[in-house]
TrEMBL record:
Residues 1-33 form the signal peptide. InterPro entries: SEST-like, SGNH_hydro_sf. This is SGNH hydrolase-type esterase domain-containing protein. Keywords: Signal.
Length: 426
């Protein structure tokens, strides 16, 4: 049975940047002692619980921007970044990558619990690489996230559950891999695009989209069942459905030429322009549409939406206007202006993960330290002092991004983007 981790302790932050360190300290101060015996549905401090996959678990949350010269320049949390067990010495479930910078720890009078897992699909995968889905699986390797939620909620006052799921049901990692392989193995004069490969197209047929939408609706229904089993009325908690952000700009906004290998080997964004355009115009809307449609299909009255579609626009991987530390002339992630000048999405890494490298392939194309903290800032605004609201989140003051007192990028939660929300109606 997997051990539930209620809060994070001791982030590996160094240096004098107190404002930045405060973001990690929110997690360590949110819950040090176990919950009181009387805590439970409607009683005790409110808890925020996050469920889902890598885009909410904290994957890539170790890295604040990127450097090809010296990884220390971007290493915000160090080698213990994903240690989430009770002693802080390792991972509760290997590979879940529940980072200290994950968005669950919003503070604001709440306590955080991160049950999400990098690589998770809607259903639990019980192979050699165990990945808990949002279901009630219970086995020797661990529990499904719905069951873990149910057990946690019985002794905690869970007031908000945030879910980001579905990307891996569309084979996100496989699509990224295919796109990079096609970029590296075809010449400029005879481009082999990934978006028309059979293996990629198979994920976006109407039948598969409908199937994933149903699977996500089932997962959201499992969340409601878990809460009811734990003794909650639907009016006592809020389900927040979180969409996925665009990780790369359209091809015309990528700062490296698509001629040669610089785009991948320097920038870590090995995609043809046409494939980058397709990712934003087709893949992301389909995936988010399935998630939003499922939120409607599940028929719950206590659902809110945190739309992250455009949250990283202007700070995406390889986007014009930001760069590697050596490109923007900053020493490291603690340098003044680093949050504004560097990327919020991690590089797609290949050979740089070989040997004793500190990098992991699974960190590729995920929100990094800045991105994770930006999502946390958005989620705190959704929490809204305990009266959760829906909204679309974007960078506040793009081009002059500042940090809040808690060390997070300052974000703006506005009205829901109706163009995005309409995707769930298709």
């Amino acid at each position: 049975m997997s051990r539930i981790r209620s809060s994070r302790t001791g982030a590996a932050l160094t240096g004098p940047a107190v404002a930045l360190a405060t973001a990690a300290l929110i997690a360590s101060t949110s819950a040090v002692a176990p919950p009181a015996a009387a805590d439970g549905p409607g009683s005790g401090d409110p808890w925020v619980v996050t469920l889902g996959d890598s885009y909410i678990s904290g994957e890539a949350g170790r890295w604040a921007g990127s450097s090809n010269d010296d990884y220390h320049r971007a290493d915000a949390l160090g080698p213990s970044a994903y240690h989430d067990n009770a002693s802080g010495t390792g991972e509760t479930i290997p590979g879940c990558h529940r980072a200290e910078s994950a968005e669950a720890y919003i503070g604001a009078g709440t306590r955080g619990l991160n049950l999400a897992c990098s690589g998770a699909e809607t259903a639990t995968s019980t192979g050699s690489d165990f990945k808990p889905g949002i279901d009630f699986y219970d086995g020797s390797a661990g529990q499904g996230q719905a069951l873990a939620l149910q057990e946690a909620a019985a002794t905690r006052n869970v007031s908000m559950v945030v879910v980001s799921i579905g990307g891996n049901d569309f084979d996100f990692a496989g699509i990224v891999q295919q796109c990079v392989v096609d970029f590296l193995t075809s010449p400029t004069w005879w481009k082999n695009y990934c978006h028309d490969d059979d293996s990629v197209e198979a994920n976006f047929t109407s039948a598969n989209v409908a199937a994933v939408r149903a699977e996500v609706a089932g997962a959201l229904g499992n969340v409601a069942t878990a809460m009811r089993n734990a003794g909650y009325d639907d009016s006592q908690w809020t389900l927040v459905v979180q969409t996925y952000p665009s990780p790369v700009p359209n091809g015309g906004g990528i700062r490296y030429s698509q001629s040669g290998y610089t785009r991948q080997f320097t920038g870590g964004c090995g995609l043809w322009n046409a494939d980058a355009n397709w990712a934003n115009s087709t893949a992301l809307p389909v995936i988010n549409g399935a998630l939003l449609g499922a939120a409607s299909d599940v028929g719950l009255s206590n659902v809110r939406t945190l739309d992250m579609t455009h949250a990283f626009d202007g700070q995406r991987l390889c986007e014009e206007g930001v760069g590697l530390y050596e490109e923007v002339g900053l020493a490291n992630w603690q340098s003044p202006g680093a949050v504004d000048s560097t990327e919020w999405v991690n590089q797609i890494r290949t050979v740089s993960t070989i040997g004793d490298s500190p990098y992991a392939v699974q960190e590729s194309l995920h929100p990094n330290y800045w991105g994770q903290l930006a999502q946390r800032n958005c989620l705190r605004q959704v929490w809204n002092g305990g009266s959760p609201v829906s909204g679309s989140c974007v960078i506040g003051g793009l081009g002059a991004t500042t940090l809040t007192a808690t060390g997070e990028p300052r974000m703006t939660l506005g009205p829901l983007d109706q163009e995005v929300m309409s995707l769930g109606e298709k």
